[in-house]
User: Which sequence fits this backbone?
């Protein structure tokens, strides 16, 4: 069960620091090597996720995943007590860039975890490079974050093009000569996700019926776009929407009558977590690609789902896993780093090896993205609750 009140609770904790150390306050001094210097005090880690705007529910899940990891590890990463400094990324770069920059320049954290919105993360690339503080991206999928590769940017999530691309050949096969209409939020994530899908779909012989991008964060009425889909005669649709936009899109796709005749496909964010709970029966039958579902059958996920549900009374999401794994990567890096300076932690991230994750074991590739398996998922009623069932693996991509 989702808790609608929790976003508000999370919002009130913005900029509050959560000290899991024996004593509060930072004994860290600033360093030209980025972020906190060494000493015996807690290591300061920034957590910047949206606590407001269309992606607020994603930020809530990421906070829960990160907090769960810390709780399971005695409030420590790499044997050091942790002081978490939280910031509200908000919806777009105008809020996310200053809030995250403050973590680096004023709070002097040793590393930052988080960032949902690709445009915001891209706007911060130079800040992390210039300050030598590592950013562990726990969601934003923009290609430009890891291409070119930066010593200071690591990602525990996905690339937008990778998630879309994973589905291309599968959909070409399923529509069997029919055409597909493409839709997405009009910013880096929507364009890259649709672009990745289109490239793989066309390479497999698929035909595109039309392509439209909807204004990000301000579109609540999708009817004009759904009319275009209907007029195109497409047999299926591929979309990129997440958070509140995903809820509105899937519900309107169904109420417009399209779900009877047109198969809806998307990047898995379309039916993830709180979005699926709010979509209800309108999401049944929607097919997506993603690297995780809480229904994934492996022992690490079994334990994770149990622990997460016990703490939060709801199943975990991809967003929670990505933040949980960011904490796991920092845990390993801080353990072996020469100091808790940003530069030393960034250097140690290169040697963390395999992360034993609820999504299955994965490692950073040469660009600092996870090498992982994507799955074809379908929304179905599982024992009275809607979930993303796993149909089959779609192969490995960044
Ligand atoms: C992005 O901006 O990269 C993004 C946002 C929400 C879900 C997935 C990707």
Assistant:
């Amino acid at each position: 069960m989702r808790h609608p009140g929790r976003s508000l609770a999370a919002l009130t904790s913005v900029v509050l620091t959560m000290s899991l150390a024996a004593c509060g306050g930072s004994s860290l001094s600033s360093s030209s090597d980025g972020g906190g210097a060494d000493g015996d005090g807690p290591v300061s880690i920034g957590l910047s996720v949206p606590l407001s705007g269309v992606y607020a529910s994603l930020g809530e899940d990421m906070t829960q995943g990160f907090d769960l990891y810390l709780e399971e590890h005695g409030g420590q990463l790499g044997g050091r007590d942790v002081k978490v400094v939280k910031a509200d990324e908000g919806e777009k770069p105008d809020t996310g860039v200053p809030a995250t920059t403050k973590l680096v320049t004023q709070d002097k954290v040793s590393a930052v975890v988080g960032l949902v919105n690709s445009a915001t993360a891209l706007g911060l690339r130079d800040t992390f490079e210039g300050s030598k503080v590592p950013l562990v991206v726990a969601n934003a999928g923009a290609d430009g974050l890891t291409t070119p590769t930066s010593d200071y940017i690591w990602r525990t999530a996905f690339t937008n093009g990778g998630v879309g691309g994973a589905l291309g050949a599968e959909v070409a096969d399923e529509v069997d000569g029919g055409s597909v209409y493409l839709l997405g939020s009009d910013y880096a994530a929507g364009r890259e996700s649709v672009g990745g899908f289109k490239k793989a779909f066309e390479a497999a012989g698929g035909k595109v019926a039309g392509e439209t991008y909807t204004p990000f964060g301000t579109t609540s009425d999708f009817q004009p776009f759904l009319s275009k889909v209907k007029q195109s005669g497409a047999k299926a649709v591929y979309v990129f929407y997440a958070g509140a936009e995903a809820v509105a899109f899937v519900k309107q796709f169904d109420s417009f009558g399209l779900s009877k005749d047109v198969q809806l496909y998307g990047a898995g964010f379309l039916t993830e977590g709180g979005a699926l709970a709010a979509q209800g029966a309108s999401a049944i039958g929607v097919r997506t690609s993603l690297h995780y579902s809480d229904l994934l059958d492996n022992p690490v996920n079994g334990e994770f789902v149990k622990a997460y549900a016990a703490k939060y009374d709801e199943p975990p999401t991809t967003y929670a896993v990505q933040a949980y794994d960011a904490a796991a990567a920092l845990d390993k890096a801080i353990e072996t780093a020469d100091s808790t300076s940003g530069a030393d932690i960034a250097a140690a991230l290169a040697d963390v090896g395999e992360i034993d994750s609820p999504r299955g074991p994965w490692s950073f590739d040469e660009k600092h993205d996870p090498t992982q398996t994507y799955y074809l998922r379908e929304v179905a009623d599982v024992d009275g609750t809607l979930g993303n069932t796993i149909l089959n693996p779609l192969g490995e991509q960044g």
Q: What stands out?
A: Residues 318-336 form the longest helix (19 residues). Residues 1-31 have pLDDT under 50 and may be disordered. The CA atoms of residues 338 and 344 lie 6 Å apart.
